[in-house]
Structure formats: structure tokens, C-alpha cells
Amino acid sequence: MAAVRVVASRVRLGLRVTAAAVLVLWGAALAGPGPAALASPPAPHAPASVASKPTADFSLTVSPTRLVIPQEQLSKDQHFAVTNHGRLPLDVVVNRAGFTSGRDGTLRFQRTEAPYSALTWISASPAKFHLEPGARQVVAVRIAVPRDPEPGDHHVAILFMVPAVGDQKQIKLNRGIGVPLYITVPGPVDDTVKIPSLRTSGFAMGGPVHFTATFQDTGTVHRDFREKGHLNLQVDGRDVAFPDFTVQRGTTREVTARWDDPPLMCICRAKVSVPGPHGTLQSAKATVVVFPVWPAVAVLAGILAISLIGVLVRRRYRTQVLKAARSLRHEDDLTGLSRSGSTVPHDNAGVDLFGDFPESDPGPEGDTPNR
After folding, report:
1. What DSSP designation does 291 have?
2. d(CA 303, CA 104)
3. How many C-beta atoms surround the C-beta of residue 314 within 10 A?
4. What is the C-alpha separation between 194 and 125, in angstroms, rounded?
5. Which 8-state DSSP code applies to residue 13?
6. ∠ CA 127-129-133 to the nearest 5 degrees?
7. 370 within 8 A of 362, measured Cβ to Cβ
8. What does the pLDDT look like over 266-287, one tens digit per residue?
9. Which pairing describes strands 203-204 and 281-290: parallel, antiparallel, or unpaired?
10. Domain ranges of the chain
11. Could you give phi then psi for residue 152, rounded to 5 degrees?
């Protein structure tokens, strides 16, 4: 019986270890990387050689990089600061260009007038200037609105160009910076933006999850979603920020918000809303299912492996129990036989059992009894 108790104790211990291993494996798979893994490594210090590295030959900056001119400032000159941060002197020419906006927000400059263009409305002074390294030049831009313009937004780009120099045999490349101007003509202002769609992958195994919204400007002016007008996406009770963007008048824009930390598992519903005139609200919705497929597969594989180990342990336990039971039964048989005075047959028991019979006890006469 002592052997059975030892085997049972070992099996119970093995089952407890198996259950603990299942819990630890499940928790590790669901918890994901720990804080040490999620924390970004500290940024290395920049070597001294980077700070002392000489500037590039060409480095031109313009400030501001974007200008919105409201109705009340049309009569005022607008100013731009142009600075040469490079090592070479530059000759700068100020030009004008129309532009259109792509669905991704990129500006496409063109020499011809675009829809709602103000290409012929502006003039710059000075139109040409020379900049030595480190020099700065202020350029004034004057706006002359024609008679009876269409109310709302009109736009134009100021190009600060540095013409290429070199001989005929070399490839020439003009360099410069384009600054968009949004000019608001007096009249009714409507900045309505519709949201035709909000798209996402529909299924994700974790973060990041991307949501792409389509914005369509149907009003008379552009719509900025910057700074105080920054737009957020509401998903799973959280705010996910869209990057700063502008929807130009009469255009359609697609903008993507990135959700970096979704929950481990959810059916998450997202919504984006844009206030409109007279208290109206433009909105769009989308749904994404988040489920950690690979961690779940790992957990299931671990559970199956541990279950297989449990089956093998149980079979081994049964084998050992049966073996111990046979041993105990054999010992009980030996004990019972020894108490009754019987002998246990052995390998040559056949001789004892089936060999010569013992002679009968003779009678008082010494004769054998009658049979």
C-alpha cells in the first residue's frame, strides 16, 4: 500500500504542475510583451561630429510655409521670409503657379489656371534677389482682387525658385519651394465637408489598425483640420487622432488614422464625425474584429501538448498502479499460505505433486490395509 500512495502522490503533483503550466502559458500569450519590451530604447547621443558637420551646399527655407488670407486682410500685404542656410550663394526668382490637390493631399503645381485659381491676382516684391550664405530676404506679396469675383476660396502658389546653373553638357535641375495661399473672397462662407466612407481592414490580429476616411468639400471654402480643429476618430471608447490636413474647395481627400493600441480581443466599432452648418453632423462608421490568432494558436498548441503529456502520465500511472496491485496481491497470497502451513509450489512442484506417493501408515499388524 505504501507504493500505491507514493505513486498517487507523484501523479497528483504532476497534475498540479500541468495546471499551473497551462495558466502560465495562457497568461503569457495574452499579456504580450512586457513593459521592458514595449519601452523604446533610449535614443543614442548624437556624436560630436554630427553637430560640427558643415551645412549642405543648398539649403533654402521659407516662412510661413502655408498662408490663409481671410476676407478682412485682402487689402494688406503678406510677407514671407526667405533664408539661405547653405554654403553657396543663391539667386532666387519668385514665380506664381496654380495648383490642385490630390486625394493624398499632395499639391500639383501647374502653369495654367486651376479651378478657383487666383493666379493673376498677386504680385511679389522683390521678384528677384541674391542671397549670400546665412542671408535673409523678406518678400512682400500684394493681392489685387478683380471685380465681381465668385465668393469663397481662391488659391495660388508662390514659388521661390533657384534656377540651375552650368553649361549645356550638364543636366540642369531647378530647385525651389512652393507655398500655397488660400484667399477668401467676401461673400457667404460654407465649409461643409461630407464623409462618404470610413474604411478599415475588417479583421486584425493586433495593432496597429488603420482607418481611412474620405472627406469631400462641398462648400465654398477649404476646411482645415489642424490645431484647435484637429479631428479624432472614436473607436472602442477612445480617441484616435487623424494627422493635420486640409480639404481644398471642390476636392476629395483621403486621410488615414492609425490605432496603435487596440485591445487584445474585440468587435470594435469606429465613428468619425464632422460638424456642419446649422448644427448638422456628417459622420461615417466602420467595424473591425480584433483577435490574436497566433497567440491563440500558440496557447492551443501548448494546451494540446500538455494534455498529451497528461494522457501519457495517466497511462503510466495506471500501469504502475496495476503493477503495484499485482505485487500486493502476490504478497497477500504468500502471507495467507504461510499462516495456513501450506507450502507454495515452485518450479519443480510437479515432482512433489505428481511424483511417488508417500507410503501409508501400516496397521498394527504391520500389514497394509485393505484397499
Report:
1. -
2. 47
3. 13
4. 39
5. H
6. 145
7. no
8. 999 999 999 988 888 999 999 9
9. parallel
10. 59-185, 191-291
11. 110, -160
Residue 330, C-alpha cell as written in the block: 502476490
* Strands 67-69, 175-185: pairing kind: parallel
Q: Determine contact, residues 178/107, Cβ cutoff 8 Å.
A: yes
Answer whether residue 45 shows pLDDT above 50.
no
- CA angle (122 as vertex; 75, 85 as ends), nearest 5: 105
- Edge-to-edge strands of the sheet including 281-290? 203-204, 281-290, 266-275, 232-235, 238-241
- Cα angle 181, 183, 184 (rounded to 5 degrees) comes to 150
Cα gap 131→156, rounded to integer Å: 25
**Distance separating alpha carbons of residues 255 and 245, to the nearest angstrom:** 8
Cα 101 to Cα 283: distance, rounded to the nearest angstrom: 23
Q: What gap in Å lies between CA 172 and CA 221, rounded to an integer?
A: 38
Provide CATH code, domain 191-291.
2.60.40.3880
**How far is the C-alpha of 91 from the C-alpha of 54, rounded, in Å?**
21
- CATH class of the domain defined by 59-185: mainly beta
pTM, rounded to two decimals? 0.66
DSSP character for 256? E
* Per-residue confidence (pLDDT) for residue 316, from 0 to 100: 86
Residue 41 backbone dihedrals phi, psi, to 5 degrees? -65, 150
